[in-house]
Design a protein that fits this description.
The chain is an all-alpha fold and about 200 residues long. About 65% of the residues lie in helices and about 0% in strands. Helix 5 runs antiparallel to helix 6 and helix 6 packs antiparallel against helix 10. The longest helix is centred in the middle third of the chain and has 28 residues. The radius of gyration is 21 Å and the shape is elongated.
């Protein structure tokens, strides 16, 4: 009599499943995306989800890391590659106008919108910490330009960084509300007019 073999868990493409989870959280937010929604779009059962990713919060944490590296890295690159804070922030906002309206994925920024109406305090706090880290990077870069003379003495680096962050967050929401890339690019043009005048003889 043949020995009955125990069933093996169905294999699946983990990266593809993570991508689908990212799209779901990005589109609907953390709170409104249920385990049932996730298993449906990821094409796996709940036991496989828990075994591969842990619970919903753990999966969301991995989604955020994946999103930051794949879709949100344009900001880090702009800050690292541009010669001045003004050029870096202008580039960052300009690229956000394109990224936030790309039809290949949900609109806006996952890290800005995913915790809307979320009751999980730790999830909200984790996203807030990431946003605050972004503002700190803005402030550091602006402060360095003040120190080097690329921005006028007395420029309030903290307030200017928060201004840039407010524009970025507003662009995310407007993109979700249907604003086009061209409309957001015009917002960037207006926003950058508020940037302090360069000291005489300095570049952009």
């Amino acid at each position: 009599m043949a020995t009955r073999q125990r069933g093996r868990p169905r294999s699946f493409d983990r990266e593809k499943a993570l991508h689908e989870a990212t799209m779901a959280f990005w589109e609907h937010g953390y709170e409104a995306t249920s385990i049932a929604d996730l298993t449906r779009v990821m094409g796996i059962g709940a036991p496989s989800l828990y075994a591969a990713f842990g619970d919903k919060k753990a999966l969301f944490g991995e989604v955020v890391e994946s999103y930051a590296g794949r879709y949100g890295d344009f900001g880090r690159r702009a800050l690292a590659e541009e010669g001045t804070a003004r050029a870096a922030i202008g580039r960052l906002l300009g690229e956000a106008a394109v990224e936030y309206t790309d039809p290949e994925h949900p609109r806006g920024c996952l890290m800005i919108s995913a915790a809307a109406n979320c009751t999980a305090a730790d999830v909200r706090a984790a996203l807030r910490e990431r946003r605050e880290a972004g503002l700190a990077a803005f402030e550091s870069r602006i402060g360095a330009d003040v120190a080097s003379g690329a921005l006028p003495p007395g420029t309030d680096a903290r307030t200017l960084a928060r201004y840039a962050g407010a524009v970025l967050q507003g662009m995310s929401q407007q993109a979700r509300d249907g604003a086009s890339a061209d409309e957001l690019a015009k917002v960037v043009e207006v926003a950058m007019r508020a940037w302090p005048d360069r000291p005489a003889g300095r570049g952009a």
